[in-house]
Amino acid sequence: MDLTDVEGDSPTCSMASSIKTWLSDTSKTQRKLSEYTIKTTTAQKEILDQKISKFFYANNVSFLSVESKYFVEMIQALRPGYSPPSRRNLAGPLLDIAHNEVENNLKSQLNEVEGKVCITLCMDGWSSVKNDPIIATSMHTGKQSFLLRTIDSGSDKKNAEYCLKCLKEAVDEVKEKYNSKVFAFCSDNEAKMKLLKEKMKEDDELKTIISYGCSAHYINLLEQEVTPNSILKYIIQIQKFFRNHHQPHGWLKEKGGLMPQIPNDTRWNSQQACINTFIQNYYKYVEIANEDKLEMSITNILSNPSLYREAQHLQKQVDVVSKALDKLQSDTATLSIAVNEWLVLLESEVLDPYKANIRKRMEEATEPFFFVANMMDPQYLG
Fold first, then answer.
1. 373 Cβ contact list (under 8 Å, min separation 6)
2. What count of other Cβ atoms lies within 10 Å of the Cβ of residue 204?
C-alpha cells in the first residue's frame, strides 16, 4: 500500500504519518563510522614518528624496544589505528631528520653571536665499554654547550700529535660549518693534553687561541690529596667488605644501611661519597660486628675508636673541596668563579695542613687571564 494514498484522520493514516516521521528522523541522525574511529593522516604520522624517535635518542633506549609487543599495545591504546615506527626507521630516516633538526637549531643559536669571538672548544678522551679509544670535542658559547664531534681513533695512537690534528679539524669545522671563530680551548690535565697545549703555542694556526686546563679536574685531584691513604685505606677495606660479601651486605641492608661507596679516580666526589656512607653506616657496621658475624680483620678495624673520629675529620676537609668542585663543574662556571673558589680553599682553616697542595694546584690551573676575569667580574672585582 502506498502511504501517500491514505487520507483522513483514520488510524491507518496516523500510523503512516508516524512511519514517515520515523524514517525522516532516522536518515538525519544516522551516525557515521568515522565518528567511532581516530584517523591518522600521513602528516600526523610523520609528526608522531619524530616525537617517538626523539624519546629513544634522548634517553638512549634500544631501538629494538620500539617493536616490543607491550610498547606497540601502549601506543595503539593511546592512539588507535596508529602504528609506531620500526627500528629500521629509527636507525635510518628518522635519525637523519633528528640530526638535521639539531644542526639547524645549533646554527640558528650560533648566528645570534655571528662575527663575535665566542666559541670555546673542550676536548676529552676515554675508552668505551669495548675498550675503543674515543675523543670527544664540544663547543661552549658562554651560555650553552654542544657536542661537536666524537672520534674513534682506531689504530691511531691517542697521543698529543693526534689530538693536535683533531683540534685543528675541529677549529676548521667551527669556522666553515657554523661561521664562528674559536678563541679558547679547555682540556683536562692529563699528560698528553698538557703537551698538546704546549704544541698549540708553536703552531701558526692555533697559537692565538687561549688554552688552559680544567680547574674542576685539578680540584678533583686535590680532593684525593686531602684524603690521605693512611686513613682512607681502612675505610675502603670496610666499605669493600660490606659491598662485596653477600651475607654482610644482606645484614647491612636489613638494618637500613646505605650502599657502601668506593673511591674512583674518574668519578668526581667519590672520596666524599665513600667517607659519607662510611660515617652513616658506621654504627650499623659495629652492631653487626658485635654479633660475631664478621671476619676478625674487619672486627679489629671497627674496634678502633679513633677511625670514626678520623673519618669525621676527613669529612670536614672533603666537604670544603667538594663544594668548590660542584661549583666548577656546573654549566654556569666561569674563570672568575674558578679564581674565587681557589681563594676560598686557600683561606679554609680546616685545610691548613694542605696549603702547599692547594697553592700548587692553583698555580697549575690558573693563567693570568683568570685574574683579569675575576677583577672585571662585578661579583668579585678582584
1. 334, 335, 336, 339
2. 6
pTM over cut 0.85 = no
- The rounded distance, in Å, linking the Cα atoms of 335 and 374 is 7
352 secondary structure, DSSP code: G
pLDDT exceeds 50 at position 6: no
Average pLDDT for 42-64: 93
Whether residue 37 contacts residue 81, with contact meaning beta carbons closer than 8 Å, is answered with yes
Domain 117-213 has CATH 3.30.70.20: no
Output DSSP code: residue 10: -
**Grid coordinates given for 242:** 660490606
**Range(s) of the chain covered by CATH 3.30.420.60:** 117-213
